[in-house]
């Protein structure tokens, strides 16, 4: 099967590309490299450096590549930017999505998988939220993810696409951009490896459901390529992708710190890592947000394979390697 991955040069997208190729599929990528990097992709993967907001450019890529399926990861994904610039957020996340869906339909794609978000749809969730939880997005980013699912449902009905929206929890792992606002594991790993203190917002008692990027990629690949009785033409299937396990930011910092200390010890370095500092609480930060992925277990036969300790170890090792190279 040939799959076009938008945002394929980014964190999650590039893991999807790797997994698709490992399974023997042909892959091509659209990415404007606004936060992604060519370095995340194998050299022989065709990369079209195109902004998904550019209707004609997207149509041209689809007409030349003629993919069988589309995996839509490209997005404006900063909540705070969406609050400051709701128009820009809607251009990328709504107009960009419509450009991709129109081009997919015009070129005979049969299946579309969309990166949605459990975190921004469900709001406060002290126990793992199922997909039946009423959507209550409070930021423009959350609104465009919700509207994106509604567009997907419309295109599925109108054009007979088989559509899947994967509602991720907090994704982390190698290749996550440490310069964004969301990737707390990437940000803390990079800071602690550089010998700098991690800054914890408020009291740090914010519980999140951390899921490993390559596990999320595996869910995408199954949703894109497997013969699935519940994923049929004309329907949208929305599935949570997470672990249901809660970890607060203080526990997360301690876990990352212990792996960074172990990395230094393995290199024979004696380094005293600075204690975390506490900054102001972020307005509107949810106290708890967890997703229940049991439907994904039924529909995709998907379960996370990486626990947090092993996932953080792999992530810290990757950032340490990057730091040694820089
Ligand atoms: N990381 C998370 O915890 C998380 C959680 C929920 C949902 N998501 C969603 O998963 C998807 C992938 O996120 P990620 O964490 O890999 O982020 P990322 O920033 O690493 O990847 C996004 C990619 O899209 C590209 N892109 C952005 N705007 C574009 C545009 N206008 N045209 C073409 N390409 C564009 C970027 O260059 C980047 O390569 C996004 O849709 C995001 O909203 C992520």
Provide a compact summary of the structure.
By secondary structure, the protein is an alpha/beta fold. It has helices at 11-22, 55-65, 79-84, 86-106, 118-122, 140-159, 184-193, 213-225, 249-266, 294-300, 308-325, and strands spanning 2-6, 26-30, 47-48, 69-72, 111-117, 162-168, 170-172, 199-201, 207-212, 236-241, 246-248, 277-279, 288-289.
Summary tags:
326 residues, alpha/beta, Rossmann fold, UDP-galactose 4-epimerase, domain 1, binds nicotinamide-adenine-dinucleotide
Characterization of this structure:
With 326 residues, this protein is α/β, with parallel strands linked by helices. The protein has 2 domains: 218 residues, Rossmann fold (3-Layer(aba) Sandwich); 81 residues, UDP-galactose 4-epimerase, domain 1. The protein has 11 helices and 13 strands. Strands 3-2-1-4-5-6-10 form a 7-stranded parallel β-sheet, sandwiched between helices. Strands 7, 9, 11 and 13 form a 4-stranded mixed β-sheet that branches. Strand 1, helix 1 and strand 2 form a beta-alpha-beta unit. Helix 7 runs parallel beside helix 9 and helix 7 crosses helix 11. The two termini are 37 Å apart. The structure holds nicotinamide-adenine-dinucleotide (NAD).
